[in-house]
């Protein structure tokens, strides 16, 4: 709830609901894994301990009965740095070994994309964001200079004009901006939540 309540008011407003839906639809696979990891990392330590692991197992047990519910067994399989805890990199390895465990999180995203703009529109949003990211990376590496408008870029622009109207392009750009703002707010809220957990643990 703390990750969704962006302004920390204790209630979820419609704007927050929309922002979270947009953000979740824009998540990559790694983003979803990080979100789930943070949900089960109750104390905000950056690792999953035995108590948190048991909660994880109880939540996903019906969906993945082959998942090792014994903490010691899981540690032996995924704890590559031998610290007795499961960090995010080890959590990603867990997902590779047992993909059905976190399948509901990815199914949720699939259903949300279908019920909102539709799969094709979200694919185009992703493509637009990736294109903007590559342009920004180029500018960062070349002192703010924009990349040359080469043949490939021209073809991409022509294809975009053929596939969607100017209004739709503007809508997708607005969604991209909203998604970035939502991610920033969720990150700040997550940091605040972790800080509160650490203070509570110290008490």
Key terms:
2 strands; globular; two-stranded antiparallel ribbon; 9 helices; 203 residues; mainly alpha; Recoverin, domain 1
Question: How would you portray this structure in words?
Answer:
The chain has 203 residues and is mainly alpha-helical. It is 69% helix and 2% strand. The protein has a two-stranded antiparallel sheet with strand order 1-2. Helix 7 packs across helix 9.
Biggest beta-sheet profile: 2 strands, antiparallel
Which structural class do the helices and strands define? mainly alpha
Number of helices: 9
Query: What best-fitting shape do the alpha-carbon axes yield?
Result: globular
CATH level-1 class: Mainly Alpha
Number of domains: 1
Order of helices and strands: HHEHHEHHHHH
For the record, the CATH architecture stands as: Orthogonal Bundle
What is the share of helical residues? 55-70%
Give the strand line-up of the largest sheet: 1-2
The fold-level CATH name is Recoverin, domain 1
Low-pLDDT runs: none
CATH homologous group name:
EF-hand
Distance between the termini: 22 Å
Overall average residue pLDDT: 75
Overall radius of gyration: 20 Å
Biased composition (Basic and acidic residues): 178-194
Organism: Triparma retinervis
Keywords: Calcium, Metal-binding, Repeat
Pfam family, one: EF-hand_7
């Amino acid at each position: 709830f703390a990750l969704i309540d962006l302004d920390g008011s204790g209630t979820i407003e419609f704007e927050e609901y929309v922002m979270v839906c947009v953000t979740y639809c824009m998540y990559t696979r790694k983003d979803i894994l990080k979100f789930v990891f943070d949900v089960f990392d109750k104390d905000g330590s950056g690792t999953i301990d035995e108590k948190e692991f048991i909660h994880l197992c109880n939540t996903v047990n019906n969906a993945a009965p082959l998942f090792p519910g014994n903490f010691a067994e899981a540690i032996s399989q995924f704890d590559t740095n031998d610290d007795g805890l499961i960090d995010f990199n080890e959590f990603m390895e867990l997902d590779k070994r047992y993909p059905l465990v976190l399948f509901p999180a990815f199914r949720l995203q699939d259903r949300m994309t279908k019920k909102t703009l539709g799969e094709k529109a979200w694919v185009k949003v992703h493509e637009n964001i990736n294109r903007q990211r590559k342009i920004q990376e180029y500018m960062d590496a070349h002192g703010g200079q924009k990349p040359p408008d080469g043949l490939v870029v021209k073809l991409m622009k022509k294809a975009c004009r053929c596939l969607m109207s100017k209004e739709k392009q503007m809508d997708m750009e607005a969604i991209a901006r909203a998604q970035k703002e939502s991610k920033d707010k969720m990150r700040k809220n997550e940091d605040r939540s972790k800080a509160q957990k650490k203070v509570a643990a110290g008490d």
